[in-house]
From TrEMBL:
<keyword id="KW-0503">Monooxygenase</keyword>
<feature type="domain" description="Luciferase-like">
    <location>
        <begin position="11"/>
        <end position="343"/>
    </location>
</feature>
<protein>
    <submittedName>
        <fullName>LLM class flavin-dependent oxidoreductase</fullName>
    </submittedName>
</protein>
<keyword id="KW-0560">Oxidoreductase</keyword>
<dbReference type="InterPro" id="IPR011251">
    <property type="entry name" value="Luciferase-like_dom"/>
</dbReference>
<dbReference type="Pfam" id="PF00296">
    <property type="entry name" value="Bac_luciferase"/>
</dbReference>
<dbReference type="InterPro" id="IPR050766">
    <property type="entry name" value="Bact_Lucif_Oxidored"/>
</dbReference>
<dbReference type="InterPro" id="IPR036661">
    <property type="entry name" value="Luciferase-like_sf"/>
</dbReference>
Amino acid sequence: MKLDLLYALTNRSGALSWHEVLQQTRRHAVLADELGFDRIWLGEHHFDVDGTDASPNPIMLATDLAARTERIRLGMAAVSLTLWHPLRVAEDLALLDHFSGGRLDVAFGRGILPIEVMNLNPAANRWNGSDNSRAIFAENLEIVRKIWTDDKFSWRGPRYTFPEPGTKFIHSPGAPMPDGWVDANDELVAFGMTPQPLQKPTPPQFAVTESMEGFRGAAHTDLKPITWYPTGQVLRNLLDAYRAEREAVTGQAPALGEDVGVLRLTYVADTDEEARRITEASVVEFFELVCRVRGIGVWLDADEDPADPRYRAMDPFDLLMERDHLMIGSPQSVSERMCRLSRSHGIQNWLVQMGFPGVAHSDVDRSLELFASGVMPELRKIEPATLATR
């Protein structure tokens, strides 16, 4: 069982300076390391003005955290691959892998907010009906993987050509000529990256996705899915599809839930009542935001009609709790809910987000400690044989 912390840099009240928010982030990362969390995941979000998650460069942030922690792995969830030059992001991630002593895990995504995508790479528009975003993602991913592993790297694709034709290779007279890099005219025909990642052949790779298409695509590209909103039968259908696609690709079916990370809003207090009191306003605000952007259907199960007015009439906190979107309550309540879902869906990797907008940093401290002392041990006890297999 892998138990990870998804960390958002929040400052909803605006009471803290962003320097103070970064200081809190450092402190929480060290605490998560000491408490036994397996990973801390950092997102990539640009132009944040509402205190939701100001994290424009998770690679740079993780480099700082690597120097302050000893054991915890550092996850990127996700690097918005369509918004980066593929060679630059490959170099930056490789350096982070070295700085962290091989503790890097990296999830790739296509960017999720128009303000980010349309202002950093409008060619990666996800909302105009074209396939450009997926095509850019696929090409960039292949380039990153290839330069991470090839000593003689070259690429001819729809958007990039490496090396650029006609590039001369100017090197030190005292250094040996790299094998296979130049032709008879001293023009580059291949090159390599220094350094390549510390982990061989590459750091573990993931994909952040919620769709059937995304799960199947992850299975075919050897990426491990991380998902947030799917619940109940919707989640089960995705897990089944990923398992079937991996079997089609590799000839072997993984266990149900194997290699899939499931994210949930999480908060642990001494009692259920206290946990709800601290988090309810933030949960309701988040619920309304997601409904405005994506519709209420994202929260519902497979047999529930988003057009049914009953769901809009429900208390949002209760609706989310009943559908297992919230791991919020006492240590006993949270551990019982997470253990039940682990067994019913074969979940072997949980990502918990405790710091969400409106929850004070001091409250996050207590939740981290209670999760580590009261929930983590129960989840660690789960035997693989007790997990659902079909």
